[in-house]
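Crash report, auto-generated. Payload:
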Amino acid sequence: MNDRDQTATASFSPSLPGREAVDLPVAITSPAGLVGGFFEWFGNLGIFSWQVLKAAVTPPYEWRELIRQLDEVGSKSLPLVALAGAAIGVVISLEARYSLSRFGAKSMFPATLVYSVIQVMGPVITGLVVSGRVGAGIGAELASMKVTEQIDAIEASAINPYRLLAATRILACILMLPLLTVAADACGLLTGWFAQTLVEPLSFQQFISSGFNGATFNAFLPPTLKTAVYGLIIGVVSCFQGMRTRGGAAGVGRAATNSVVLASLFLILADVVLVKFILVFFP
Amino acid sequence: MATAYDNAMKQGAVTDGSGVPFVAVENLRKLFAGRAVLNGINLSVSRGKTLAVLGRSGTGKSVLLRLIIGLEKPDSGSVEICGQDIAGLALDQLGEIRKRIGFLFQHAALYDSLSVAENVAFPLQHHRKEMSKSDRADRVNQLLAEVNMEGNLEKMPSEISGGMQKRVGLARALALEPEILLLDEPTAGLDPISSGEIDELILKLQRERMMASIVVTHNLHSARTIANRLAILNEGNVVIQGSFEDLQQSDIGFVKEFLKQS
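Recovered output after restart:
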């Protein structure tokens, strides 16, 4: 093994100095490493999150990088999120019209569409789409920087990589997810109404007034803002996976895949908790 | 209690006898998977001096540099930079020390999403915020001119050769005017002419900036050219350190074999 290999094998991981990385998907599919690997992975994730939090709240702040990431996460995800939202709107519209007709509740169509899109499908679809696009992007980018020693070079230049690379990306995900969700919701409602109108004409004004009739901010704001938690999950998981990568091109591929898989999984699990939380605290 | 810095100062004759060591490494030990890659290393380098670290592949030369700049943590022993022990420092505190060190990575480690000029400007943007854009651009031009890369400002790292990448990496390492320069195989993979040019460049920098430098290399010819002292590592230990003449006169079998094969 030459010097370079030696360094690569044992290279500093900003998340975990001197520790061997544990791959959660590997750990949870291997019975032997199930318990130990599971707890070690979460322990390492906790240490990483603490390092990022410390770096994020202390100056200097990386405003320029944050703006770049807001653009990367926000504007560049917008077309995809809008398209996914639009598709979901049509699907819900078709399904809802059919189901409601069977029960003679066609007049409930606007409210059903509005509540389904804004409270349930919009946030989850936005989270999953961003998890796929941004999670994979962050995981692969940081992993590639890690294996080519660019993250070490940043550190050697006396720049905190947690602040420059992780905190900015995580914050961008937290800030952008709710905005993207609003965009997805808007597209979903628009295409849902349009799909309905093709079958049975309904003015947009009537659709909106009927759909939002009696609705309060509590009905729509918490489900939209909960996507900030999705953003946190996507950002933290993908940065963590990227910055602890080892093993060249294969490692980069693994980091990208794991970022998407784990972020999507945790996002859906978090949704269970968040829905219950919203039902209890924002009835 | 005497620090490694104090001890190294007392051991001037053991190091190079030229004064205060900018880098002092004492009893440095590093294990990977239970194997000691470095097993009690003692080294020091003073201002204006260059130490070349040689040895077989896998003997921990690059790890030594990474320990000195704090990218790895030692299992025992100490690393002192300008008299300050870096053990236990938080990342931001370590950052203050790192501003005094320039590091050239073995494969240059240029930021592949930034142009040549942006790579060199990167440390300045973060640590010389008072600098105006035009001053920063001037400084970047000056640094790139020093490494003969002034005509490649807008090129991306993937568009330039390995030798050119090393030059840009060197310019980036020099951006903050470091007192200490760590070079990890600066001539590895380069043709003899490019190697010679890099050596000339390092010598020029030594003359002009009086930095303390540690150069990890496999290239004995290059080590002789640029270093005041040479140290040979084997099985985690410094087998010998001294001038090239000291190495030539050594009776140690490994040293003889190493010089013969180089």
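Post-recovery validation: Residues 127 and 230 of chain A are 6 Å apart (CA to CA).
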